[in-house]
Design goal:
It is built from 14 helices and 15 strands. By secondary structure, it is of the alpha+beta class. The chain folds into 4 domains: about 160 residues, no CATH class; about 90 residues, Arc Repressor Mutant, subunit A (Orthogonal Bundle), CATH 1.10.10; about 40 residues, no CATH class; about 90 residues. Helix 1 runs antiparallel to helix 7 and helix 7 runs parallel beside helix 10. It is globular.
């Protein structure tokens, strides 16, 4: 079956439907402006998907971490074993009892679906379907996914993504919690307040029985806890255990319910002034010395930040809110360090030596944005004749002992530049 053309003439839904109805086996390749994606079909069902430019984001280890099945330390140990044995990561994780076979299958399925669902946002691109008599895929861990089920979910995304993108305009956006007098109640997904997408724009629809309380789902609560006024949407998507679409939808729903707002450079004093407006006539009649105004504002801001009941904090006590934000940033930083490590390995394989600075990795091996941690600090990089070290920092700028990545390299990937006169740096795990 000859099937090729552009998405402007033949939509992705039509392509999937045709392959599914005719029960074709082969590989569908889609080339867009920023990426190339391959989708593998067996008898009209999807059994694999891969993204050329986003393999680091979609690799199995990252999905397992996002879904809570695996820790970063466990992944690092498994990757070390993989380098020594050249076995598949999934086999290593299940063989050594790090995760269950069921968890592995769930993560692989999620990985495939995340790649496929991103395609439904493409507005243009070329496609080509190569029909094969047979294809290879992970039969032990992949359950073929019918084109019909993908199209049902894809149709929902096609309808809702444009609406969501009107408010979530960029992954560089930053949101913060808004002051509210209403109590926030976490309920099941079916009991949460509805957001109506039917009219082409989101609108709130309250469910009965809870009065003035705001009902949000557990997924929305997870995203709500991550919003702190400094973390970008991209960072939230990166560390969230939800899929990319579900994370953006949760942010959109929180915006529609007026629980969060975009940060546009306003200070905490501006937020406080908005919450407690000042009677201008009283100020005019009773002037207050400027030093006293500064002291009062500082005290008010401190009170606002430290109050346990302050909606700008998380729904729990203060210590939980701070640790939640810190843990989120640390998780983001750990993933970025791992991605830098993968980029270093690819650079070494391609060039026969390691770069003298991390900046040399961008933009071909990794995005320049990922060379800095969520606090804005550039990662520390120390190459030596046979090893390299990448280290990250905590919020106060000090080195975090948990954010260290050290790997031995092959002699063919030794750094091109010479080491200092001391003979180099001896790195240890």
């Amino acid at each position: 079956m000859a099937l090729e053309g552009t998405l402007r003439d033949f939509s992705l839904a039509d392509i999937f439907q045709l392959i599914g109805l005719q029960r074709k086996t082969g590989v569908l390749t889609l080339r867009g402006k920023d990426d190339t994606v391959t989708v593998t079909f067996l008898d009209g069902k999807v059994v694999g998907a891969d993204s050329l430019n986003r393999r680091l984001e979609n690799r199995l280890g990252t999905v397992l971490i996002k879904t809570g099945f695996l820790t970063q330390d466990q992944l690092n140990r498994a990757l070390e074993i993989q380098k020594e044995t050249l076995q598949r990561l999934g086999f290593i994780l299940t063989h050594y009892g790090i995760i269950s076979s069921e968890s592995l299958r769930e993560a692989i399925q999620l990985q495939i679906m995340q790649v496929v669902y991103r395609l439904f946002r493409w507005k243009d691109g070329d496609y080509h379907f190569s029909q094969e008599t047979t294809i290879e895929y992970d039969r032990d861990n992949v359950t073929p996914i019918s084109a019909e089920s993908i199209l049902m979910e894809g149709a929902r995304m096609i309808d809702e993504w444009p609406i969501i993108e009107k408010r979530i305009r960029s992954y560089d956006m930053v949101f913060r919690k808004k002051l509210t007098d209403q109590e926030i109640v976490v309920v099941g997904a079916d009991e949460a307040d509805d957001i109506d997408f039917d009219e082409g724009h989101g609108s709130k629809r309250k469910r009965g029985g809870f009065g003035d309380k705001i009902r949000i789902s557990q997924a929305e609560k997870q995203i709500y806890d991550m919003v702190d006024g400094t973390i970008t949407v991209g960072d939230i998507v990166e560390v969230s255990r939800l899929a990319e679409f579900d994370t953006n939808k949760a942010l959109y729903e929180l915006l529609t319910r007026d629980l969060i707002e975009e940060v546009r450079g306003q200070s905490a004093a501006a937020v406080l002034a908005q919450a407690t407006p000042v009677d201008e006539s009283e100020v005019a009649e009773t002037p207050v010395p400027l030093p006293l105004v500064i002291i009062l504002v500082a005290l008010a801001i401190a009170s606002l930040i430290t109050s346990i009941k302050n909606p700008l904090n998380t729904l729990g006590p203060l210590t939980g809110g701070i640790s939640s934000v810190t843990a989120t940033r640390k998780a983001v930083s750990m993933q970025r360090i791992e991605m830098i490590g993968q980029a270093l390995e690819k650079y070494g394989t391609a060039n026969g030596h390691l770069p003298s600075a991390l900046a040399e990795l961008a933009p071909h091996f990794i995005s320049a944005d990922l060379l800095r941690d969520p606090w804005g600090n550039p990662y520390k990089y120390l190459p030596s004749p046979n090893r390299y070290l990448v280290s990250g920092f905590s919020g106060d700028g000090g080195t975090d002992p948990d954010l260290l990545l050290s790997h031995t390299i092959n002699s063919s990937a030794a750094p091109a530049t010479t080491t200092p006169e001391t003979g180099g740096i001896e790195l240890v795990n």
